[in-house]
UniProtKB/TrEMBL annotation:
<dbReference type="Pfam" id="PF00144">
    <property type="entry name" value="Beta-lactamase"/>
</dbReference>
<dbReference type="InterPro" id="IPR001466">
    <property type="entry name" value="Beta-lactam-related"/>
</dbReference>
<dbReference type="InterPro" id="IPR012338">
    <property type="entry name" value="Beta-lactam/transpept-like"/>
</dbReference>
<dbReference type="GO" id="GO:0016787">
    <property type="term" value="F:hydrolase activity"/>
</dbReference>
<protein>
    <submittedName>
        <fullName>Serine hydrolase</fullName>
    </submittedName>
</protein>
<dbReference type="InterPro" id="IPR056008">
    <property type="entry name" value="DUF7586"/>
</dbReference>
<feature type="region of interest" description="Disordered">
    <location>
        <begin position="444"/>
        <end position="463"/>
    </location>
</feature>
<keyword id="KW-0378">Hydrolase</keyword>
<dbReference type="InterPro" id="IPR050789">
    <property type="entry name" value="Diverse_Enzym_Activities"/>
</dbReference>
<feature type="domain" description="DUF7586">
    <location>
        <begin position="357"/>
        <end position="440"/>
    </location>
</feature>
<feature type="domain" description="Beta-lactamase-related">
    <location>
        <begin position="23"/>
        <end position="338"/>
    </location>
</feature>
<dbReference type="Pfam" id="PF24491">
    <property type="entry name" value="DUF7586"/>
</dbReference>
Length: 463
């Protein structure tokens, strides 16, 4: 129904994707629904169901994307951080002293991760269905006592929190949010059909009656100061470009390392199910052992989800024009999973390193933390990888630093320093990783083992 290149997806895969999308549209009673799958940064399957203005929706049909807008705002904040214009540890008041909650000590990182503890919504009336002129100033988006929880203690989703981040961007850039978005994200990524207000062709927002197959139009409001929380409209085609960026970065917008930082869990969700969390402007989800990052979105009349799985080089999008009744977050995750299971990623060919530092081979091979066996491997780019030889255990990638140490990049040792310790002759005696000592033999050297060793050494068990 949509003229998009299929790029050699197998017929069985396309059939399974169509069945999942069609079932969701029919059972969810969505006036229209568009789904897409990305692979290696490009759309490989797109399908529309239902009608928009009497015709099936296309990859160029705009839908309101709701809270996915927050991820765009987070990217703008991280750009300012990478430029040295701010620090995520800065308080909101350091940059917006007149803003509501400015004296509460909330940090920018807490606002990005929804751990600032401020109110989830604005004072009445409900901002999503009322014109932004109702609250013309930043002071109007929060009630007099906006702090609901101590900052940093728990995840508490806050729409006004992102409105404050949007105001911060405008203040530091000296330009309206729409202009900054266009110049710093949309234009560099080639997103020509993403906008703050709808542009034809676009879907119309509908509420579907819970007990009858009849519709009620939803207002397409300009939310004004609350725009950073959920104002944007976009298309499958544009969001495919944004999804490719979220998976791999783009130096014109953000470095891949910063995207990795955004995808790092900061806060778990409230409640007992810890299969999801939140990073810096990105929702995080565990789905069948697969780690997804992206965001859901909803505004009256619209639902949206974008997920990416960088490890699988896959992404999926679902856009619908209904207020409730359709779990697009699960739908998009299913589209990604179906593709991954039907067509597992083909690994890149193994190739030997083009160049390497021969001295690094001295660090590779088996080491022992006490009696626990680990291995150090040399990876492309000169990184080291430490992990257990067998079974579960702590693992980490380590990157060389100018002073001769190594910095842990992930896992338990993220941010920790590995030091290579040598004797007077220059021979490596042991590794020190955050005070943990690794030797070539199990508890092999009493002089470097914290606490020393029993003078009688290893022995048989008691009779």
């Amino acid at each position: 129904m949509i003229a998009m290149p299929e790029m050699d997806l197998l017929p069985a895969t396309r059939r399974a994707l169509l069945h999942r999308l069609a079932t969701a549209q029919a059972e969810g009673r969505a006036p229209s629904l568009v789904g897409a799958v990305l692979r290696d940064g490009a759309p490989v399957w797109t399908e529309g169901r239902g009608l928009v203005d009497g015709a099936p929706p296309t990859a160029d049909t705009q839908y309101r994307i709701g809270s996915l807008t927050k991820t765009f705002v987070a990217v703008l904040v991280l750009r300012l951080r990478d430029e040295g214009r701010l620090d995520l540890a800065d308080t909101l008041g350091a940059h917006l002293p007149q803003a509501p909650a400015a004296t509460a000590g909330l940090t920018l990182a807490q606002l990005l991760a929804h751990t600032g503890g401020i109110a989830a919504e604005t004072p009445p009336p409900w901002w999503e269905r009322t014109d932004g002129g109702v609250r013309p100033e930043p002071a109007d988006i929060l009630e007099p006592e906006p702090v609901k929880h101590p900052a940093g203690r728990r995840f508490h989703y806050s729409n006004p929190g992102y409105a404050l981040l949007g105001a911060l961007v405008e203040q530091l850039r000296g330009a309206p949010l729409g202009q900054v978005l266009h110049e710093e994200i949309l234009a560099p990524l080639g997103m020509t059909r993403t906008s703050l207000l709808p542009q034809a062709p676009h879907a119309h927002g509908w509420a579907v009656h819970p007990w009858a197959d009849v519709l009620l139009p939803e207002p397409a409001t300009d939310t004004g100061r609350m725009a950073p929380a959920g104002q944007l409209w976009s298309t499958v085609q544009d969001l495919s470009r944004f999804g490719a960026f979220l998976a791999a970065g783009d130096p014109a917008v953000l470095a891949e390392a910063t995207l990795t930082e955004m995808r790092t869990p900061v806060a778990p969700p409230d409640g007992p199910a810890w299969d999801a969390g939140y990073g810096l402007g990105l929702m995080l989800k565990q789905d069948g052992g697969r780690q997804l990052a992206g965001h859901t979105g909803s505004m009256p009349g619209f639902l949206c989800t974008l997920w990416v799985s960088p490890a699988d080089r896959l992404g999926a999008i679902a856009l619908a024009n209904t207020t409730t009744g359709l779990a697009v977050g699960g739908l998009a995750a299913d589209l990604l999973r179906i593709t991954a299971e039907h067509e597992p990623r083909i690994p890149d060919p193994w190739r030997p390193l083009d160049t390497y530092d021969p001295a690094l081979l001295e660090l590779t091979g088996p080491w022992y933390w006490g009696p626990g066996a680990v291995a150090v491997r040399l990876r492309p780019g000169g990184d080291l990888e430490l992990g257990p030889l067998t079974g579960p255990g702590r693992a980490a990638r380590l990157k060389a630093q100018p002073d001769g140490t190594w910095l842990g990049l992930d896992g338990y040792y993220a941010g920790e320093t590995l030091r290579v310790i040598r004797d007077a002759s220059g021979t490596v005696t042991h590794l020190d990783l955050g005070s943990f000592v690794f030797t070539r033999e199990p508890y092999g050297d009493p002089d470097v083992t914290p606490g020393g060793l029993d003078p009688h050494g290893w022995r048989p068990g008691p009779a």
